[in-house]
Design goal:
The protein is of the alpha+beta class and 284 residues long. Helix content is 21%, strand content 38%. It has 6 helices and 16 strands. It has an 8-stranded mixed β-sheet with strand order 2-3-4-1-5-8-7-6. A hairpin with a 3-residue loop joins β6 and β7. α1 packs antiparallel against α6. It is globular, with a radius of gyration of 18 Å. The mean pLDDT is 94.
């Protein structure tokens, strides 16, 4: 169990997905990822926000799509900030656009939806009573997020100026670049003193403890966007459950360095990656 109570500014802290039919989506994700779903909004609200939990811990949410957001179902990533208003204003200064907010979300916190200069949508989150996901990096929970960009160099500059992220070198095969928040590893190691030693034993890339996201070169035919990855204990089984619950397989289960992964589309078209961690030497 990997529990989280706090997220420093500049660290992705929450994910949710918006749908025109959130009840059907909630049933889908409950069936695929084993989530316990509970609508946080009262019946008179005219909308839904299903909080997803595992063993009582918050892991994600499935909600109604606000009219201010682009049409279509999608997964969203929220980045922790000290001041949502200031972060939204800074994003505009850097060439982004504020799509929704800043606005209070009850006592939970304050948020804004922002599009980066290429149009990829993400959220900033100033925590109130809710800091973010309470359980991460284990089967059925959120693992990582990344931005798919036409110009990865420009995207790295934008997010670096907004959140203080530093981009690593591009992977020679995929072109993906990890994004690091200096000092984040110190925050994690303070609550998990053996973190760096375990990463070193596994052969993790240098500075991996500081990694907070990635930048991927945009695949042909797609628009710039953020994507999300969930951990699963069996990528093949997750793909089978997705099909059984009305989803579609975008990429069949495939072995990649460190993982066996599959890309899934839910019944309304929101895509996500389901990934099983496979340490080197344990493939097959």
């Amino acid at each position: 169990m990997i529990e989280r109570e706090t997220y420093p500014a500049g660290v992705p802290c929450w994910v949710d997905t918006v749908h025109d039919d959130p009840a059907t989506a909630a049933a889908f994700y409950g069936g695929v990822l084993g989530w316990e779903m509970e609508d946080a909004l009262p019946p008179e609200a005219g909308a839904h926000y299903f909080m997803a939990r595992l063993r009582g811990k918050l892991v994600a949410a499935v909600g109604s799509r606000p009219e201010a957001l682009p049409a279509g179902a999608a997964w969203n990533t929220y980045v922790a900030v000290d001041d949502a208003d200031a972060a939204a204003a800074r994003a505009e200064e850097l060439g982004g656009a504020v799509v929704m907010g800043p606005m209070d979300v009850g006592d939970a916190g304050r948020m804004a939806a922002v599009a980066d200069p290429e149009g990829a949508l993400f959220f900033v989150w100033e925590a109130g009573d809710t800091t973010g996901a309470q359980l991460v990096n284990e089967p059925g929970t959120w693992n990582f997020s990344g931005v798919n960009a036409r110009d990865p160099e420009a995207a790295a500059a934008f997010y670096g100026a907004l959140f203080g992220w530093e981009a690593g070198p591009p992977d020679p095969d995929s072109g993906a670049r990890l994004l690091y928040l200096p000092g984040y590893g110190d925050h994690l190691a303070a609550r998990d003193p053996g973190l760096r030693e375990r990463m070193a034993e596994l052969g993790a890339p240098e500075r991996f403890e500081d990694a907070v996201a990635w930048i991927m070169p945009l695949a042909d035919g797609l628009s710039p966007h953020w994507d999300v990855t969930f951990s699963v204990d069996d990528a093949d089984a997750a793909a089978a459950r997705a099909v059984a619950h009305g989803g579609r397989i975008v990429m069949p289960p495939t072995d990649m360095p460190w993982v066996r992964m599959t890309v899934i589309s839910d019944p309304e078209g929101a895509t996500f990656t389901a990934s099983r961690f496979v340490p080197p030497g344990q493939e097959g």
